[in-house]
Amino acid sequence: MTIFRRYGPLFTDLYEITMAASYWTHRLDAEATFSLFVRNYPPKRNFLVAAGLEDVLNQLEQFRFAEDEIQYLKASGLFPDDFLACLPGIRFSGEVYALPEGTIFFPGEPVLEVTAPLIEAQLLETFLLNTIGFSSLIASKAARCMIAAGGRALIDFSLRRTQGLDAGLHVARSMYLAGFAATSNVLAGKIYGIAVSGTMAHSYVTAFNSELEAFSAYAEQFPDQSVFLIDTFDTLQGARYAAEVGRQMQEKGHALIGVRLDSGDMTALSKKVRKILDDAGLSQVKVFASGGFDEYKIAGALSDGACIDAFGVGTKVGVSADAPYVDIVYKMVQFNDRKVRKLSPGKATLAGQKQVFRRLDPQGRLQEDVIALRDEDIKGATPLLEKVMEGGRCLKPHPSLEAIREKFSRELSILPEDIKSINDHHIYPVHLSGRLQKAQES
């Protein structure tokens, strides 16, 4: 199951519509190709993860101006009547080439290219940048956490800090796409089929007369799904109470799943809590940790020898705190069969419809990418951009979220180790084909 909430063409910046009105007046209605790509890496990033395409394609199939939207534009007094009269007939009628979701990509490479009549292609700019940019940013941050965790389970705890309902849903989907095991977001679980997971809050513990009473009550309510939050008062005493209730659960044929740390020196506490649990014969009980974790804090705790089996990861990943935006742009590269490029210093673009080709080394790892013209064939390399929409309609069903997740896992497994680094910046080789370079000179 997926979510679809229609956003009309007014989900855009004003200048997209004023440009469209001028195009209409001057009869600029030939086909244009726009390329969406990331200019530069966010800080310390070595790779990015494509996400958000399903939402894009769903919206493009439903792209149209509703009557109330046209009336709103009319009331602004900005637009001529003949332009407003054309809006009811506008649909997205073009084609889209795109990287499949879960594809690892690098700056300069087209994530998608849109070819459509100029007005249609122009009106999509803001929506595409917003949707692909945000989802890819979060998926990329989550992927780095997966690398840092080294196979330990990660759970999305970000919902209460993400910026709005839609963001909360897209974050949960992007984190799961990148390998997270579950989410605390119940609506995301329902919509996307993601496993949901949660423990308890400190308010639950303080609602009872003692921690022991709180843990016993929770175990009675959820005898096979209990994770106790043990740091409300004294973490080590909380661990002892958890062990006491855990033993009682065993005697009744049930099992305590885990205990959660949410504050303090996670490394030192996790070691002591692990010993308390093991000494009580509860070696199967997992130690979970939450509280400000991202890839850096996860890596730091594990390098210090923390006995943590899984992490709840929230705010810093849900808002990509260290890199809250990505320098993603949508630029015209061809108009009416004329190749177009921008020459602004530091912001130059590559003209022409393009394809990205990928070569693997003899060990099957990513070796280099080549950006080429779309009609090229690069020997020994695989094209990455796929034609996903033609005539305004999707060419095939969307892949399942599980299939996307598996694709990303395969891609991550063949990423060179230096590119996986979360602290050191390394540049993956991306080259231009000879024909593409020559096309920039014409």
CATH names the topology of the largest domain as nicotinate phosphoribosyltransferase
In whole angstroms, the N-to-C terminal distance is 48 Å
Q: Could you state the CATH homologous superfamily of the largest domain?
A: nicotinate phosphoribosyltransferase
- Main sheet makeup: 7 strands, antiparallel
- The tally of structural domains comes to 2
Number of helices: 16
Poorly predicted runs: none
Secondary-structure content class: alpha/beta
- Main CATH class of the largest domain: Alpha Beta
Round the mean pLDDT to the nearest integer and report it: 96
The share of residues in extended strands comes to 15-25%
Radius of gyration: 25 Å
State the helical fraction.
25-40%
Strand order of the largest sheet: 13-12-1-5-3-17-18
Described by the principal axes of the CA atoms, the overall outline is elongated
Number of strands: 19
Tell me the CATH architecture of the largest domain.
Answer: Alpha-Beta Barrel
